[in-house]
């Protein structure tokens, strides 16, 4: 008390020391006599109002410790509440509080409120009166929306603030059920009964948020806490309050989703909630329970055999839980979920409160008391909507089975259109369609069967006969696009496609149960892994017995009994260990050759699990990290627990040790120097480049675990985990997981070239068909990618989740290709005479925004998984993460995919700093680089930027650290000069005369409004696309093609380096070029995106060719149509076109003797040759050169999870400047300026008045780059800071200056707005091009 009495007289630094003394005393408080310390509480409460964060945290720690000692006594807790303690703590936990505290202290303060509310009626009443639920709602909202936040603390564990909040919410709803009834509980219940308005306010704030948290994919412990709060809320609320509360959330649909879980604790709570609702509001909610599928779910709990495959899959989910719902600790008692939110701790492990039959008994009670017997009959139990939708589904199925003869395809399409239209009218009708009705109707499966012509359920699509399907698939997709996307008079959100996507997303959230696997089951201990290469690891190992398969004669028995196996070993690694020990090939003398083989073989080289890339599967970064695991460690700063230990990979064949981040994660692309010689060398390289990714990965052994073959793309840990998750138990017993002995059976693999043959067959088919049917060639890439790509391996193809994912994937592809599909439909209509005017070929398509396809639930699960540091470093990621993000990347938000991409391409250490190097860290030498990434500084000459860039890439393209730039004879270095260097290089690549791009001299400008560095660059409103290079010549207008290819190699290196280091480029590639970077095929319709005039003309020529083919195929004399085989009233021959590429007279596209001049007979050949030269053969060398340079930095295949628009955003940042209504939130004012200072108001008005070029110049002046990073001004880090520039002279004579490394603008207080604008424009135009001290 002496310290506290005189603390006000000390300085802040001394106060901190004094309070640390009090903290140490409070940590040693005796539990038997804490009363004397109560007199210190008033002073401590006063100190909570202090502005110093460190002081406040010390005071909070003292109060937390005091409350822990007093929590057993209600009288002492009541005494604590008399000194404004509740008010002060409530103020601190408010997210908008001026005083911020660290996360552990914040959690401790919420825990303090839990203890006070539990034992004190005064605290309970005060919290309600202070509207604590509003604050708790905000905290829970951060859990649901955390995939949009950068906060790293939202992880599962005992210190999780969400767990503490749920404890507090449970205490604020007192029930006597299961609790020891005491006077405090009775007083609380009486208070709520007397104040129903407070209870209703509680429910209105909390209920919708709890539903969102559960639906977002929360772990089982959080779900239990949320359901517990909802159950208590329903119990305490009267009927009229419940009716109002349930208007904010669809409780029947929510409960139907909970019934898909396995855990009996969750099922019991859901049944209790359902029973209480039916007891209080049976007449209101009985029909809703039937409509949303709650009745069917309860019935299926009792008789799971009645549950159809399409119905909500009770007991089929795979969401895991763990015997430890908290982080593993030797001193922590593992408790049942029944006690997860009890405030009283126990030293023993109490038994579960639920008996084995409790769930079934309650389900029987609800069924017999609330549901009529006639509902058990399937027909009477269905709603009218469900019956109607089933009728439409059956009609679609009949269409699939109906044979289509030559004279009925149009009628067939019309029937499809009619059924689709009726389905959409029903889905978008006045009476809403529930998720249960939508799923149970079979509409999803019927749509997929019809759209895919039955192909989507096949394991491997046979490409030999797919041509028969191709025309059918194309026409069906055209009809689909026409119905879903051709509306121009309704908002995008009301498009039929948007409505269908929303239904599918809702169904996916209800059905999917992909697991989030935290690393709590890994006790960090040293173990020795015998398999695959005998070394120590820092986590448990599996105990495995290897047994020869029954009937296997070519292999011998494994000589040893039980071995320890690294859990993150791939099948390849295990095979490499087993093969020399079990191979029994007989020599001529009849003796076993195993010993000789064992001596001859080098130590096994561990192939990455994704080496099997020829099979079209992408295992992602986790599998490739799991090829080898930590052997040595180095201490790293700022990384907690296991993450603080540097992971190394050892190459078994060389003995060399490499850092995790020095390995090109997940990449099989070999680094190579690009040859710049002849065309022959180029073709050789292109061939090698395409073959390097496809290694000979034929397995020698087939491995089986419990009868299931081990997939080569999964680690042993992932295989075992997947089998456990597919079991009926939602809990994973970690102790048993590591102690159990697993039996792996091995057999000799039979060599098969089936996959290769199928691939060759496909390629031969593709080449033979494309020259025959031009009209449908654009479908090939679309359909082959749709059917070749596998979804998550642990999904049964008969499950409704598989159908939903596949339909979403198909709809996303149709939406992306909607312009192509609609254009093709228009062209076909012209060919058949339904359209007479070529101008009518133009189509207007309203595509659905890409973010409509994002699943917030799956995004949150991926974010949760990526926040687990141990999992990232060891490779314990569930297989669905890698497989779904490869096959359906659109399901995840752009931010989540960016994080995943950085992990996959660069490893965990570099991924720890998202956009750090783009915006901040590289500039500030006073701050250490996160993760300890090394920097490389490189000297650049401004007058030879491209030469400097070439030398930089030659020396450092493969360098894994950050590259920074300093200019010759300039003192500036760091982020600002580096960003400007990438901007200058971008502009150099856009200059005319390089021979790289399709040059349109009418668009050549020299802008006077831009800095000098921008003058003389090409501006194409449609973006840059490679200029076609003729295969028959080596130069054009003096430009050597070899030099052009060198520049494309350099461009690939620069682009990859910019992405890796997080730099912004200022180079406007066309959408079509981004598609080439992503490895996508281009078609005739893509030419419209970068050369609309050429593309439109070719499209009209194609329509004429199609009409000619149609006339010839129908054999019907139609003079009107024949007359229309002209191009805008001109005969094709009268156009006097020759077989040279339009715009490039030296590029001869055909040397055939019949191809001198273009006529109607050879017009089809002309179109094909022009398209080929423009987007295929004429640019293939440039594209391969670009990819070759790119792959020297990191594997370009990692970019495939992005769309073209997203890749542009990733590389070039935001196109727009910033939203001025949010500008004040993202700018920091300091050193004499505030948001209301007149100079600041003037500056913001001036920026608003700037034109586009001036804003770009302003951004480059302040940050070093003319574009903002992805995310806009909010992502600029450090924040844009504007400070007052002090000067001895008149401010009007001063110029503004900047520190680009810190985004720091020093602005003099000019006397007028006009003077400020004049000086600012002078600075941003004349102050470019050098970095000196200011």
UniProtKB/TrEMBL annotation:
<feature type="region of interest" description="Disordered">
    <location>
        <begin position="603"/>
        <end position="633"/>
    </location>
</feature>
<dbReference type="InterPro" id="IPR016024">
    <property type="entry name" value="ARM-type_fold"/>
</dbReference>
<comment type="similarity">
    <text>Belongs to the UPL family. K-HECT subfamily.</text>
</comment>
<protein>
    <recommendedName>
        <fullName>HECT-type E3 ubiquitin transferase</fullName>
        <ecNumber>2.3.2.26</ecNumber>
    </recommendedName>
</protein>
<dbReference type="Pfam" id="PF00632">
    <property type="entry name" value="HECT"/>
</dbReference>
<dbReference type="InterPro" id="IPR045322">
    <property type="entry name" value="HECTD1/TRIP12-like"/>
</dbReference>
<dbReference type="GO" id="GO:0061630">
    <property type="term" value="F:ubiquitin protein ligase activity"/>
</dbReference>
<feature type="active site" description="Glycyl thioester intermediate">
    <location>
        <position position="1301"/>
    </location>
</feature>
<keyword id="KW-0808">Transferase</keyword>
<dbReference type="GO" id="GO:0000209">
    <property type="term" value="P:protein polyubiquitination"/>
</dbReference>
<keyword id="KW-0833">Ubl conjugation pathway</keyword>
<dbReference type="InterPro" id="IPR000569">
    <property type="entry name" value="HECT_dom"/>
</dbReference>
<dbReference type="GO" id="GO:0043161">
    <property type="term" value="P:proteasome-mediated ubiquitin-dependent protein catabolic process"/>
</dbReference>
<dbReference type="InterPro" id="IPR011989">
    <property type="entry name" value="ARM-like"/>
</dbReference>
<dbReference type="InterPro" id="IPR035983">
    <property type="entry name" value="Hect_E3_ubiquitin_ligase"/>
</dbReference>
<feature type="domain" description="HECT">
    <location>
        <begin position="951"/>
        <end position="1334"/>
    </location>
</feature>
């Amino acid at each position: 008390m002496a310290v506290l009495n005189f603390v006000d007289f000390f300085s802040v630094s001394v106060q901190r020391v004094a309070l640390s003394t009090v903290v140490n005393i409070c940590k040693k408080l005796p539990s038997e006599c804490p009363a004397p310390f109560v007199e210190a509480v008033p002073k401590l409460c006063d100190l909570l109002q202090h502005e110093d964060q460190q002081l406040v945290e010390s005071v909070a720690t003292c109060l937390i410790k005091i409350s822990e000692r007093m929590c057993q006594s209600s009288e002492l807790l009541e005494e604590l509440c008399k000194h404004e303690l509740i008010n002060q703590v409530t103020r601190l936990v408010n997210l908008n509080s001026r005083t911020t505290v660290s996360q552990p202290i914040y959690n401790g303060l919420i825990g303090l409120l839990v203890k006070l509310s539990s034992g004190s009626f005064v605290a309970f009443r005060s919290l309600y009166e202070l509207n604590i639920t509003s604050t708790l709602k905000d905290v829970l909202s951060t859990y649901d929306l955390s995939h949009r936040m950068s906060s790293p603390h939202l992880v599962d564990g005992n210190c999780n603030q969400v767990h503490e909040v749920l404890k507090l919410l449970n205490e604020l709803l007192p029930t006597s059920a299961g609790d020891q009834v005491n006077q405090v509980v009775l007083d609380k219940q009486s208070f709520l009964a007397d104040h129903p308005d407070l209870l209703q306010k509680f429910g209105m704030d909390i209920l919708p948020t709890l539903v969102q948290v559960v639906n977002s994919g929360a772990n089982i412990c959080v779900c239990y806490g949320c359901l517990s709060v909802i159950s208590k809320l329903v119990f305490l609320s009267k009927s009229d309050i419940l009716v109002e509360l349930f208007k904010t959330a669809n409780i029947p649909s929510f409960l139907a989703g909970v019934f898909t879980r396995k855990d009996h604790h969750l099922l019991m709570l859901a049944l209790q909630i359902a029973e209480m609702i039916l007891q209080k509001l049976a007449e209101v909610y009985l029909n809703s329970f039937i409509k949303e599928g709650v009745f069917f779910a309860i019935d299926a709990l009792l008789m799971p055999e009645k549950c159809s495959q399409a119905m909500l899959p009770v007991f089929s989910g795979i969401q895991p839980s763990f015997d430890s719902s908290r982080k593993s600790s030797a001193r922590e008692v593992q408790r049942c979920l029944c006690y997860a939110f009890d405030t009283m701790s126990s030293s023993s492990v109490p038994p579960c409160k639920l008996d084995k039959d409790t769930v079934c008994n309650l389900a029987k009670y609800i069924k017999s008391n609330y549901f009529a017997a006639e509902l058990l009959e399937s027909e009477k139990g269905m709603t009218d909507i469900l019956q109607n939708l089933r009728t439409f589904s059956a009609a679609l199925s009949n269409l699939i089975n109906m044979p289509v003869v030559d004279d009925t395809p149009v009628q067939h399409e019309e029937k499809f259109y009619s059924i689709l239209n009726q389905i959409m009218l029903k889905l978008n009708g006045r009476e809403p369609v529930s998720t249960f009705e939508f799923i149970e109707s079979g509409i999803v499966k019927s749509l997929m069967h019809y759209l895919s012509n039955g192909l989507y359920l096949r394991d491997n699509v046979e490409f030999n006969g797919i041509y028969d399907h191709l025309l059918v698939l194309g026409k069906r997709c055209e009809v689909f696009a026409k119905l879903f996307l051709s509306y121009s008079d309704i908002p995008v959100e009301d498009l039929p496609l948007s409505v269908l996507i929303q239904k599918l997303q809702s169904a996916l959230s209800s059905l999917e149960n992909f697991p989030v696997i935290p690393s709590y089951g890994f006790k960090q201990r040293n173990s020795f892994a015998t398999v695959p290469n005998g070394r120590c690891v820092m986590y448990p190992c599996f105990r495995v017995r290897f047994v020869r398969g029954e009937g296997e004669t070519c292999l011998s028995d494994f000589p040893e009994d039980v071995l320890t196996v690294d859990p993150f070993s791939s099948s390849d690694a295990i095979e490499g260990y087993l093969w020399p020990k079990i191979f029994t090939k007989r020599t001529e003398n009849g003796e076993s050759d195993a010993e000789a083989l064992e001596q001859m073989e080098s130590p096994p080289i561990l192939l990455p699990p994704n080496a099997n890339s020829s099979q079209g599967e992408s295992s992602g970064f986790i599998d490739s990290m799991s090829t080898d695991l930590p052997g040595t460690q180095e201490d790293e700063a700022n990384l907690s627990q296991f993450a603080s230990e540097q992971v190394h990979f050892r190459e078994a064949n060389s003995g060399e040790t490499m850092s995790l981040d020095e390995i090109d994660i997940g990449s099989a692309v070999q680094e190579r120097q690009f040859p710049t010689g002849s065309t022959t060398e180029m073709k050789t390289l292109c061939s090698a480049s395409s073959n390097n990714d496809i290694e000979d990965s034929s397995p020698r052994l087939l491995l089986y675990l419990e009868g299931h073959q081990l997939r080569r793309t999964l680690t042993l840990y992932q295989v075992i985990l997947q089998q456990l998750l597919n079991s009926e138990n939602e809990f994973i017993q970690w102790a048993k997981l590591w102690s159990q002995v697993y039996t792996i059976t091995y057999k000799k693999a039979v060599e098969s070239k089936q996959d290769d043959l199928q691939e060759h067959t496909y390629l031969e088919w593709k080449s033979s068909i494309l020259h025959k049917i031009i009209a449908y060639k654009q479908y090939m890439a679309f359909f082959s990618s749709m059917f070749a790509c596998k979804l998550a391996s642990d999904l049964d193809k008969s499950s409704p989740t598989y159908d939903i994912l596949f339909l979403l994937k198909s709809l996303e592809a149709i939406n992306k290709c909607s312009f192509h599909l609609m254009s093709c439909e228009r062209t076909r209509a012209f060919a058949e005479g339904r359209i007479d005017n070529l101008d009518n070929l133009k189509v207007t398509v309203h595509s659905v925004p890409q973010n409509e396809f994002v699943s917030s639930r799956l995004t949150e699960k991926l974010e949760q998984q990526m926040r687990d540091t141990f999992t990232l470093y060891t490779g314990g990621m569930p297989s669905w993460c890698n497989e779904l993000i490869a096959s359906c990347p659109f399901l995840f938000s752009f931010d989540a995919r960016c994080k995943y991409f950085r992990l996959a391409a660069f490893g965990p250490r570099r991924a720890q700093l998202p956009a750090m190097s783009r915006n901040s860290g590289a500039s500030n030498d006073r701050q250490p680089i996160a993760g300890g990434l090394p920097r490389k500084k490189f000297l650049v000459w401004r007058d030879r930027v491209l030469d400097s860039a070439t030398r930089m890439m030659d020396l450092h393209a493969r360098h894994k650290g950050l590259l920074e730039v300093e200019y010759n004879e300039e003192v500036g270095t760091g982020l600002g000069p580096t960003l400007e260097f990438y901007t200058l290089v971008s502009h150099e690549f856009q200059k005319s005369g390089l021979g790289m791009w399709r040059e349109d001299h009418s668009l050549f400008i020299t802008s006077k409004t831009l800095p000098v560095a921008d003058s003389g660059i090409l501006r194409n409103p449609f973006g840059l696309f490679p200029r076609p290079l003729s295969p028959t010549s080596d130069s054009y207008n003096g430009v050597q093609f070899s030099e052009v290819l060198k520049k494309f190699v350099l461009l690939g290196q620069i682009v990859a380096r910019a992405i890796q280091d997080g730099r912004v480029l200022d180079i406007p590639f066309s959408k079509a070029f981004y598609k080439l970077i992503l490895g996508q095929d281009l078609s005739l319709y893509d030419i419209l995106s970068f050369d609309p005039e050429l593309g439109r003309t070719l499209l009209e020529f194609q329509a004429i060719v199609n009409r000619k083919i149609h006339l010839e195929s129908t054999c019907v004399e139609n003079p009107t149509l024949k007359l229309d085989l002209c191009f805008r009233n001109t005969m094709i021959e009268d156009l006097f076109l020759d077989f040279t590429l339009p715009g490039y007279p030296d590029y001869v596209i055909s040397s055939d003797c019949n191809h001198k001049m273009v006529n109607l007979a050879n017009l089809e050949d002309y179109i094909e040759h022009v398209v080929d030269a423009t987007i295929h053969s004429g640019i293939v060398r440039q594209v391969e050169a670009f990819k070759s340079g790119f792959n020297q930095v990191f594997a370009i295949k990692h970019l495939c999870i992005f769309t073209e628009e997203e890749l542009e955003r990733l590389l070039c940042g935001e196109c727009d400047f910033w939203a001025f209504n949010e500008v004040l939130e993202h700018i920091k004012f300091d050193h004499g300026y505030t948001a209301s200072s007149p100079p600041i108001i003037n500056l913001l008005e001036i920026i608003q008045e700037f034109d586009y070029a001036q804003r770009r110049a302003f951004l480059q002046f302040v940050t070093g780059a003319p574009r903002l990073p992805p995310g806009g001004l909010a992502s600029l880090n450090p924040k844009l800071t504007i400070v007052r520039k002090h000067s001895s002279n008149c401010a009007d004579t001063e110029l503004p200056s900047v520190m680009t490394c810190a985004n720091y603008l020093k602005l003099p207080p000019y006397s007028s707005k006009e003077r400020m604008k004049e000086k600012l424009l002078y600075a941003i135009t004349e102050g470019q091009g050098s970095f000196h001290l200011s």
